[in-house]
Amino acid sequence: MTQQPPVPVDNSNQWTPAQPSLQPSFGQYHPLVGQKSFLATWLLSWLLGGLGVDRFYLGKIGTGILKLITFGGFGIWALVDLIITLAGGQKDKQGLRLQGYDQHKKVAWIVTGIFFVLGLIFGGISAGSASNATDDNAPIVSEEEAPAAKAPATEAAEEPVEAEPAVEEEPAEEPAEEPAEEPAAQEPVEEEPAEEPEEPAEEEDDSSVPVEYSSALTKAGTYSDMMHMSKQGIYDQLTSEYGEDFSADAAQYAIDNVQADWNQNALEKARIYQDDMAMSPNAIHDQLTSEYGEQFTQSEADYAIENLNN
Fold first, then answer.
1. Cα-only R_g, the chain
2. What are phi and psi of 143, to 5 degrees?
3. Would you say 55 and 64 are in contact if contact means Cβ atoms under 8 Å apart?
4. Which of 26, 107, 157, 244 has the fewest CB atoms within 10 Å, counting from its CB?
């Protein structure tokens, strides 16, 4: 018995399910995007980045606290985070990209650039106005203090010497020329105690000397006794706009009438430089006579160096 071949079946009219394509679809990969907004992150990083608010918003609590404590890494960390956010490299705590970056990145870059340029312009304008203000004030100070600075250089060395003999000669000459008038003023001096004759003299001085002159004299005595300053140094301090701001006449009156031993002041200053700063005698001498130092005279500085170890 022979086998017959199978009869072919026509299945063209039957439905068959489509087989899924196993070929990968290139160019259709999209990175995962989180729920954190790019606009919010950008604004927080720009306006409150120094306080770490942007990192708190992204859920990065640890680095947010560190950024807050360091004030945004002294500004450097805040600037770096802002640049990373604008460049699209900032991610949330899960490592997902920020939502809306592609749609708003151009606006963020433009706004940030505009404000950066405006900040540079206004900063330059304010710096220029500040420098102009200092230039405008400089001539006023120099015009007022230039004569006052030159006056002590020529008169300070001469007037004190002339003023002292004048005070000493008057009592010697007046009794000889006007014997009739002086006994009335001298009798209470001889009869009364030593302290009482000084009071009327002070009252006369207070009435004839302006208040500004008396105040300048008191200040000069304080600088001489407490700080052992030189004659020129006291004058400059009295007339300086940033010091006592007395007039040049009041300062000159104080220099002429202050009771001070300038040699002793120089010696006290020299001892301070030797004991506290361990300076050499030559360096101390230069410091005492320097125009930018103590401004003592050469003779006063020589006296201080000669008696430094006594």
1. 45
2. -70, -35
3. yes
4. 26
A 10 A CB-CB count for 280 gives 10
pLDDT at position 31 is 65
Nearest to 253 by CA among 187, 186, 308, 208: 208
Token pair for 255: 């220099």
Q: Is 66 helix (H, G, I), strand (E, B) or coil?
A: helix
Tokens, residue 270: 């020299």
Q: What are phi and psi of 27, to 5 degrees?
A: 80, 5
Nearest to 82 by CA among 27, 139, 38: 38
Angle between helices 61-69 and 76-87 (to 10 degrees): 140
DSSP structure class, residue 209:
S
From CA 223, how far away is CA 237, in angstroms rounded?
Answer: 9
Q: Looking at per-residue confidence, does 76 or 28 come out higher?
A: 76
**For range 28-53, the mean pLDDT:** 82
Between CA 160 and CA 253 the distance in angstroms is 10
Token reading at 271? 């001892």
pLDDT of residue 206: 56
CA-nearest of 294, 291, 280 to 305 is 280
Residue 181 has pLDDT above 70, yes or no: no
Assigned token pair, 233: 């140094």
Token readout for 34 is 């989180």
Give yes or no for residue 10 having a pLDDT over 70. Answer: no
Q: 218 near 181, Cβ under 8 Å?
A: no
For 22, other C-beta atoms within 10 Å of its C-beta total: 5
Q: Report helix, strand or coil for 128.
A: helix
Question: Under 8 Å CB-to-CB from 245, ≥6 apart: which residues?
Answer: 239
Selected residue with higher pLDDT from 29 and 56: 56
Amino acid identity, position 2: T
Does residue 226 have a pLDDT over 50? yes
Helices and strands in the chain, H and E counts: 15, 2
DSSP string, 193-204: -SSTTHHHHHHH
